[in-house]
Design a protein that fits this description.
One of its GO terms (biological process) is dUMP biosynthetic process. The chain contains 2 helices and 11 strands; from the N terminus they run αβββββββαββββ. The chain is mainly beta. Strands 1, 2, 3, 4, 6, 7, 8, 9 and 11 form a 9-stranded antiparallel sheet that branches. A two-stranded antiparallel sheet has the order 5-10. Strand 2 and strand 3 form a beta hairpin.
Length: 178
């Protein structure tokens, strides 16, 4: 079940859901607007030009209120908001149609798991032929919350728990090779 604005407001007041900073106008009928933070990370070049999943990936992190995303460029960014999810609530990130129409693709790999706490890292790609100026504090998407039928048996306590800033891939920490 997707949460309504009334339920989101109730959970925020009861402190069963935490979102900071949050302005009242960000709460929409069935979602919460998310804003772009001021941290951006790009993958550093490797000597052989290959990224592997077995080795730690190096990133260059930039803290700025404005970032120029070049055509065909990929960058990690972060939400301005910090979230703490209860163990019976999941969420997913949806990009804004207005930005998609500019050629800005906003993605978040997978769901925001129950029990997750931190800023959400966004994957941004410029599919346009023109550069796009990204500005901290601008609405870039929305978080849609879905109530689970009961608490997760194993809520998220993984490698991205408590993340702040545009956090790079930690796939090298995975044990599986399949």
């Amino acid at each position: 079940m997707i949460l309504s604005d009334k339920t989101i407001i109730k959970m925020l007041k009861e402190k069963t859901l935490f979102i900071e900073p949050l302005e009242e106008g960000q709460i929409q009928p069935a979602s919460v607007d998310i804003r772009l933070g001021n941290t951006f990370s790009v993958v550093e070049d490797t000597s052989d030009g290959i990224i592997t999943m077995q080795n730690e990936i190096k990133y260059k992190t930039i803290v700025t209120d404005k970032y120029i995303l070049l055509p065909g460029q990929f960058v990690l960014a972060t939400t301005l908001e910090y979230f703490a999810m209860p163990d019976d609530l999941t969420a997913f990130v949806e990009g804004r149609s207005s930005l998609g129409r500019m050629g800005l693709f906003i993605q978040n790999a997978g769901w925001v798991d129950p029990g997750f706490e931190g800023e959400i890292t966004l994957e941004l790609f410029n599919a346009n032929r023109c550069a796009i100026e990204l500005q901290s504090g601008r609405r870039v998407g929305q978080l849609v919350f879905a109530k689970m039928d009961e608490n997760a048996l194993n809520p998220y306590r993984g490698k991205y728990q408590g993340q702040k800033g545009a956090t790079g891939s930690k796939v090298f920490m995975d044990n599986d090779v399949s």
